[in-house]
Amino acid sequence: MRILVFQFVPDVRGKPVPRFEPQLGILLSLLERREHQLSLEGLARFDLGKIKAALARALPQLIYADISAVCVAAARRTLEYIEQHEFLPIVTGGSYPTVDPAGCLSLPGVQAVAIGEPDASLVTYLERMKDPAVGQIVSGVWLRDERGTARPELPPLVEDLNSLPFAHRDLFNYSEHIRQTGQVEIATGRGCPQKCAYCVNELVEKLYEGRGVWVRRRSPGNILAELAQLRERFQGVRLVRFLDHAFALDGDWLAQFLMAYKRQCDLPFRCHLRTNAADDDTVRRLAEAGCQFVDVEVLSSGNLIRNEIFEMDLSGEQIRAAFARLTAAGIRSRAIVYLGAPYESEASLAETRALLLELKPDLVDVRPYYPWPGTRARNLCHEQGWLHARGEEQYHEDRVGIDMPACRPDVVATFIRRLRNELPTTLDVPWWRRWSSASRSAWGQVFQRRRL
Ligand code: SF4
User: Fold this and answer.
1) Are 267 and 240 in contact (CB under 8 A)?
2) At what angle do helices 119-129 and 22-33 cross, to 10 degrees?
3) Residue 16 preceded by cis peptide, ω within 30
4) Distance 63 CA to ligand 1 centre (A)
5) Whether the CB of 353 sits within 6 Å of ligand 1
6) CA 273 / ligand 1 centre spacing (Å)
7) For the segment 207-241, what is each residue's pLDDT rounded down to a tens digit?
8) How far is CA 363 from its chain centroid?
9) Distance CA 62, CA 58 (A)
10) Who has the most CB within 10 Å: 51, 67, 128, 348?
11) Which residue puts its alpha carbon closest to atom 6 of ligand 1?
12) 161-195: b (≥16 Cβ within 10 Å) or e
């Protein structure tokens, strides 16, 4: 079957779309194995020219829409156009169908919605579509037809991740990505043991309750085989980027993996590090294996927002100790903060700035808080009547997604601009060194003028 895949993903800091995403990449590999002919188009917003060109290129028999939970408006308009002009069957998957399957099933022209991890369910569903005589009810795929709506249960989780194919890359124009960044991205597992209230992880874990182990990891050998294949296929790979938040959360697996990685790959790498896992041993192991850079979710300075609202279970001491260890080990860091979170105030904004100045990360990623659908933090905002009237538009405009009387969106926007101007958002010389050398030279000029 000729399948045109639309990936609806937000425009994040100008990164091109379609954008590599491991779960979608694996699904594309599985579909290719079944000899489906695939095309992929990425859309961050409704773009009629791109949609028409993709349809003309692919001449599809079916549309698969992978919809991010913050791209529902773009998906709705696109699917409406397809329903009115092309009369093609439309099947969806991704984060929006998972958090709101009923809402997704009511988008124009959608006949089926794959919930959660779509690997097995969607492939089976598409096989059954070929033969209308066979019943089409497949675990994990909600359906709407003239007989009504079917909401079958989810299938068990794929526990052996090594049994899945390596993710498809070519359709994401991956050689161009490597040419521009020198980075190859890879996922080492699925699921996360943490339960941060701003993340959709907990909801998906609950959906799969009783259907297998939630936190799963690939074997070191399987990951290294994929990395070897990628280095052979793509010239110019200089850095490996591990995408999982849970990458360093299992000490035994990490020790085993890093030992094998150092022996067999030995490229510098970048990963996520939660500060509750950043003990001496872990940081030392990461540094010895070639970790050059870590992304650290700091989120907010205060205990109220970080621990009571977002339930990150991270103390200020843990965060300070983690950054000190990273600096001592020579690992550069990016601190990620969300501003404008529930119960934010002008005082807590100033405290977050003070914490960043104290931690001295090499890079900061200052994001406006957006209440991601399907999260407990969003439910709280909903109960308090704080959800912004302009919904996901706020996300696409890089603005905070809630509107609290105590800390209006304009106040947050001004503070974000200030922090982005003040602190480093791209990597070069560490900002505090630049700052201190700039101030040294400013003082030097003052003294020189005095001497003259
Ligand atoms: S650590 Fe990351 S993936 Fe895990 S629950 Fe928290 S935000 Fe989600």
Assistant:
1) yes
2) 40
3) no
4) 31
5) no
6) 11
7) 999 999 999 999 999 999 999 999 999 999 999 99
8) 18
9) 10
10) 67
11) 196
12) beebebbbbebbbbeebbeeeebbbbbbbbbbebe
The single residue listed with the structure tokens 């201190």 is 436
Give all domains of the chain, ordered by start, each with its CATH number.
Answer: 2-150 (3.40.50.280), 173-435 (3.20.20.70)
* 403-414 confidence digits (pLDDT tens): 999 999 999 999
Closest by CA position to 307, among listed 275, 282, 272, 333: 275
Model confidence pLDDT, tens digit, residues 60-116: 999 999 999 999 999 999 999 999 999 899 999 999 999 999 999 999 999 999 999
DSSP string, 303-353: HIIIIIIS-----HHHHHHHHHHHHHHT-EEEEEEEES-TT--HHHHHHHH
Report how far residue 268's alpha carbon sits from residue 242's, in angstroms, rounded to the nearest whole number.
11
What average pLDDT score do residues 337-349 get?
97
Interacting residues of 357 by C-beta distance below 8 A, sequence separation 6+: none
Q: Which tokens in the block code for residue 134? A: 């066979």
